[in-house]
Write a structure and sequence with these properties.
InterPro entries: AraC-type_N, Homeodomain-like_sf, HTH_AraC
Distance between the termini: 20 Å
GO molecular function: DNA-binding transcription factor activity; transcription cis-regulatory region binding
Shape: globular
Structural class: alpha+beta
Largest sheet: 5 strands, mixed
Number of strands: 7
Keywords: DNA-binding, Transcription, Transcription regulation
Strand content: 5-15%
Organism: Pseudomonas panipatensis
Protein name: AraC-type DNA-binding protein
Order of helices and strands: HEHHEHHHHHEEHEHEEHHHHHHHHH
Radius of gyration: 21 Å
């Protein structure tokens, strides 16, 4: 494991997905303690509505669940049980929204409250609207599971909001058919297309403009205000580390030294170094952290050759990037890209 803190270790989310997974799988005879093993989440935490966990902790629970349950379609199974009520005040605000489109846009405004690992978007494509999910760059071995969980939980939310079991026109998936591909059409009741540019649920445009049966503008507005406060509590404090990370993310090719960054931020390198020491880290660790996150995004979301990715990350030699990525992830860049 790298010495720096990965984004999945920094980013916090609510416990709702972990609670769902442990509840459903405990009914199948799998002990909660086994599902939580190595995650740093205690069984007592599952009863604490104010408890936040990191994405890394959640991913450990998912890996344990797949290992224990051994159902390759587990992501589909769990997602179809992820009802809108599981999202707390965000789910309540969605139910009180005016239309289905409004509700989904509210959800996408608060991805941290959804707990999603994906960038969600509503996109108009000719005679259909696509609820798309891309940008996943966490554990590669959980790509299929997390995509299944994301897509089917979104479908479950759409059904809950409308109060009826609607079917998508089709489901697009950005990976090759897995061995359990037959389970998709059986459980979702719609055509499935693998190898698409992005994963998406596709609906007729009229469905998005449907008024919701529980719409209430006052309740929706009050709920969204609470969502804003909760989202602020989940987000990082905006300290100097975040300032440095944001700068590096946009200037990796010209930020090889702390002194360079300090000049751009109109601060002294001495001040920045003191802040880094207070957080038990170093400039090199923060630089590696940002490079790793950017590398994962470029490897998964683009077809750029490895040497160009290395250049964008500020490496003068491709071999140096390959060695660094192997050290960070345990995978070569080519193997990670799949």
């Amino acid at each position: 494991m790298p010495a720096f803190q990965l984004p999945e270790q920094r980013i916090l989310t609510t416990l709702h997905t972990v609670v769902l997974a442990t509840e459903v799988l405990s009914q199948a005879g799998i002990p909660r303690a086994r599902l939580l093993e190595g995650s740093g989440i205690a069984e007592a935490d599952l009863q604490n509505a104010e408890k936040f966990v990191s994405h890394a902790q959640e991913l450990r629970v998912f890996a344990n669940a797949l290992s224990c349950h051994q159902d390759p379609a587990l992501g589909l199974y769990l997602g179809l049980r992820m009802h809108v009520s599981a999202y707390g005040i965000l789910g309540y605000s969605m139910l009180a929204s005016r239309t289905l489109r409004d509700a989904l846009q509210h959800a996408m405004h608060y991805p941290d409250l959804l707990g999603t690992y994906f960038r969600l978007a509503l996109q108009d494509h000719g005679d259909e609207v696509r609820l798309s999910a891309d940008g996943y760059r966490y554990a590669p071995e959980l790509t299929v599971f997390n995509t299944e969980l994301c897509m089917t939980s979104l479908l479950t939310v759409v059904r809950d909001l409308l109060g009826e079991s609607v079917r998508p026109r089709r489901l697009l998936l950005a990976y090759r058919p897995p061995l359990h591909a037959h389970a998709y059409a059986e459980r979702l009741g719609c055509p499935v297309e693998f190898g698409a540019p992005t994963s998406a649920l596709c609906f007729g445009p009229a469905l998005l403009e449907r008024p919701l049966p529980l719409a209430d503008p006052v309740s929706c507005r009050n709920g969204l205000q609470q969502c804003q406060r909760l989202s602020a509590a989940l987000s990082s404090r905006g300290d100097i580390l975040d300032v440095i990370r944001r700068h590096l993310a946009n200037h990796l090719q010209e930020s090889r030294s702390l002194e360079t960054v300090a000049r751009h931020l109109h601060r002294s390198s001495r001040t920045l170094r003191r802040h880094l020491q207070q957080h038990n880290t170093s400039y090199q660790q923060v630089l590696d952290e940002v490079r790793y996150d950017k590398a994962r995004q470029l490897l998964k979301d683009t077809d750029l050759p490895i040497y160009l990715i290395a250049e964008q990350l500020g490496y003068s030699e491709t071999a140096s990037f390959r060695h660094a990525f192997q050290r960070w992830s345990g995978y070569s860049p080519s193997l990670y890209r799949g």
